Each structure stands twice: as structure tokens, then as C-alpha cells.
Hints:
Order of helices and strands: HHHHHHHHEEHHHHHHHHHHEEEEEHHE
Radius of gyration: 55 Å
Distance between the termini: 116 Å
Mean pLDDT: 75
Number of helices: 20
Shape: elongated
Number of strands: 8
Low-confidence stretches: 1-48, 50-54, 63-79
Helix content: 40-55%
Strand order of the largest sheet: 3-4-7-6-5-8
Amino acid sequence: MSDILNRFTANATEFTEVKLAADAPLLDLSGAVQMEPTISAGTLAALAGLQFEAQPKEPLTDPVFSKAPTTGKGMLSHVELIRDSFLNVRRDLLDLRDKANARQNQARSLIDRLCDFLDDYLKPEELRRLGVIDDDSQARPFRLLVAPDLHSTEGVLLRPKLDLAIPRPGDTGPDGTAHNDESALFAAGKVVADDIRKIEALRGALTTLRRRHQQALEDLRARLAALEADIPGEIRTLDVRERERTEALDDYAVAQRLLAEHWREIEAAYAERKRVIESHRGLFYVKVRETPLGRTLPDPLDLRPSSPDDLVPGCANRDTALPAALGPFIEAVYDIPAGDWASLRPLGHLLPGRAILAGLVDTRRQKLTLRLNRALTAETPVLTSLVQQNHALVREVAARPFNAGALSELQRQGSAILALDDLLAIPSPLLRDPARALHQRLDAAAGCLLARLRTIAPSIRLQWSTLAEANRLAVETPERWPGIADAEERDFNGIRTLVELVAWWFRQLDSDASGVARTAMRNLVRACLLLAASDDPRQLIQGSLKTIPGRFRLGEALRLTLNREAAPGTLLQLFDDSQRVIATLRVDDHDDQGTVASVATILDPEVERNPGAVLNTALRISGLNRG
């Protein structure tokens, strides 16, 4: 056939007529001339047997011979190109199949990996996590909904296989007939369509899963945005509950002190009963006589100090550290004008001349202005109202006039503005030394007052603090305070010292002192009552043991983890699992690794004998920061 095509194309421009042999049958070549799309095998066989003469007998016209040979050559070459392209495409499809079905480095094939991925993410537990189903029984219909071509009616995953054979021309078809070019092409198209359908089923399942995951992601983002919007409100609620918790802890500490006081009373009564029962020496009969009996009345005279250094009996004139919460109130006492103090009022004529006095008054007013511009802060919430009252007192003193023609009047106005701190800067020792002595005694008296109030029974202190907070307590006359008689029965000397100390405190003011001075003095006593009766919840210290010593004995160093820094010397209680206090610890120092403490007392002997069996890092530590 190739020989015929070569001869046909080579001599197409040289001959003018085709002559057939006498014995060759005449063929109709109209189909070839009219450029039919296909040439049958019989026609090609007949063309092979043709014999052409060397010279054409009759020439033909140019248009006929210029188109027919060229068109015939193009038709035959086109058929061969389609077949080659088909074979190339078939080979490429087989390569794609091999890549999809073959295993890479002994691993699973691409289709197996896709099917395993779908099987993993269509399991009931994964669908429940995504929120697609609520029960395992819903997993089967969901699989059929996502990938109906990949799952059976029971929901079992059917793994697609690209195993249909791609026929070639000449291969035997299903009916036993050999494929030609057209039938092989159409059969290959069916196989490719089946492969595409299977791959599209996998792609559709993956797309559905991706859409489900995207929807779940959007839902989670929406929930996250809603949670972020709710976080500030929840934080505020948490702060409120935290304050309620700390207040409850404070109430629990008050209840503990009341219970400890009650147990001490019971133990004292039991000890007295035991002493009465066990200490008798004999039984005597005496004659009954009428003898008047009565309680000894307390000494009506004022208590007098036994030492010149004592402010009052039982309160030595020594430096006493005051807690930070009392800072604003002792500062307000120091700001009382010099003319309101009983010991300084007669010394007003010792103030310096106009120029120096005017400078002192300007300096005092600048200090008062800075204090007025400072934000109001209180270490304890119950002291906030008292701090605000002191702030109003400062404003009243700052507004007092200082403008007079006579020097005596100017000194009187200056003594109504200048405070103790200003008198300490005066060159004259006749006024400076009394001011310094009064300053030191006021500081010592404030510390002694707070220490004395903390020794009173908790129940009585709680009653006094409640009245002081409501401003319904006669602060200047402690003998009229409710429960004072019960307090005298428990600690007679301590109560007499307290009464005398309060009386000394208000005796320092002149009888004609202004309301500013008396209010500042009353506010300090009320603040001492509030601090002595109820502790600030923010001063509660909680924590746990960080290290466990090999031997638990007095003075042994420990490492603690606390919620806040405690002042050195603070005593902390160590509780066991049953909430019993087994030891007390004393805070020594703080560093980068935590708090260093030492064992102060051991209340449970078992801890000292076998600390490893009792101590652990889960034991709780609690206390109160008095610094």
C-alpha cells in the first residue's frame, strides 16, 4: 500500500490519464475523489492490485488533477496520524493509571491513601467531633450523602479500581469481534469516562469534606468571636466572685478567731474546775456568820505612768512601726495646724517674721495643693470613706486666709495653716523642740493604740468596728463603748491602758481646737478600730511548700511559694490534709526563687519525728500580712 501511495504522489504532476490493464476490473474512484472521510479495507486492497500505464492516453484538466492527488494523500496521512495520537493517548492513560494504582516506595497508592483519608474522616467519632452527627447510627446515611458512589447501602467504603482494559485496534471486543480504529476509540472513551467518574467521585467526596470543614471552621470562628466578646464581662464577673471569695475567707478567719477565743475560755474554765476539784486539802466545819461580801471596785483614780518615758501606763514611748493602711490618717494628724495643739498654741508668738513666715505658708500651701491633686487611694476598702473625709479637711485648711497688717494677726493666721512638719524647719529651738517631741509621741501613741486594740477579744473588736464604720461610736469617751465591762473582766489592765491612751490622744488638742483637728484625730482612732477588728482580704497570704526538708525542726530553712510577698517576720500557719495547724513558719526573706522561711513552732510531734510521711508540696499555708 505504501508503494502505491509513493507512486501516486510522485507522478501526480506528470501523467494526464490513468490506464488500467485489460484484465483488471474497472473501479469506481468517485469516493476517493470526493474526499470521503474514510477508505475501506477492500478499496485499499483493490488499489494495491491496480496496474498503471506509463503514459496517460488522454489529458485531464488542471483543476481535477491538482486537487485529487493532493486530497487523497492528505486523507491517508490523516488516518495514520489519528491512530498514532490514539496510541500515544492510550499510553499516557496507562501511565496515569500506574501512578494512581502503583505503590511508591512500598507505601500505599494514591487512591488507597485517598480512600483511607475519606474512611478516617467519615468515621463516627470524627463526624461527632465536627458536629455533623449526634449518634453513631447516623454515620451510614451521612456517608451515602457525602459520597454515594464510594459507599455501599450499608455505608461500607468501596475502593475504586482503575482496572478496565483500554482496547487497541485489532484487540478482541466483548462480542468476539476484533476492534478497528473507530470501535477501539469509542471503547477507550467509555473506559476513560469510567475512570473519570471514579476520580470525580473521590474529588466530590473530598470537596464535600472540605466544605464541611470550612463550615465547621467558620462556626468555630464565630464562636471564638462571641467568646472574645463575652470575655470582658466574664472577667468582671470573675473579679466580683474573687472579691466575694476573699471576703468569705476573711469571715472564715474572724470565725476562727472567735472559735479560738471560745475554746480558750472553755479550757480556762475546765482548768479552774480541775484545780478546785483536785487541790482540796480537807473538809472543815465553821460557824456560819453573816459577813457582807461584794466585788472590789476598780481604782477610780487616773492611771499614772511609772516611767517618764511612758506615754501612759503600759505604753512605752518608743518607735512603733505602723501598717501602710494607717499612713494617710497619721499624715492627716501631722497636718493639723499648730494652733490646734495644746502644747503649741501658747507658743504662737515665737513664729518668725513676715518674710520667713510667708515663705513657710507658701511651702505649706504647695504641699496641700499636691496632696489635693493626688488620687484618693485606700489600702483597705472599709477605709475609703475616712480617706475622703481627710481629703476634704485638707481642702478646708488650704482655703484659709493669710493676709493681715499686724504681725500678731499674721502669726495667728500662720499658726492656723502651718503644721508640725513646717515647725521643724524653724530656726528657733523654743518652738522647734516642742514640735519635734510632739511629733514623736504622736507616732508612738498611734502604734501603741493599734497594738492594744488587737489584744481585745475578737467579738468585742468586731462590735466596736461595726459602730465605728457607721460613725455611731463615741470615739472621745471609750468608757461608753459597748462591751467595755466584759472587756475589763477579761483584761482589766489592758482596758485601763486603752482608755487612758485614748484620753491622752485627745488631750493633746487645745480646748478651742478647730473641727478639722478633732475630725482628723477621730478618723485615726476609727481607722485603728477597723484595722484591728477586720483584716483586709488583700492581706491574706496563701501558698504551699516548695521544698521539703530532711529534718523538720525549729529554725530549719524552707522554701515557700506564696501568692504575694509578706513582710519579714510574718507568721504563717501550715495546715495538713485535715485542715489542722501542724506548725507555724516565719518569713525571713524573698528572692528570685521564692520566699525563704524558717520553722517557728511545731504543733504536731509526728511532723518532727517523720516529716517525709506528713509533709508534701500540696499542704496549704495561710496567714495575714501585717506589714
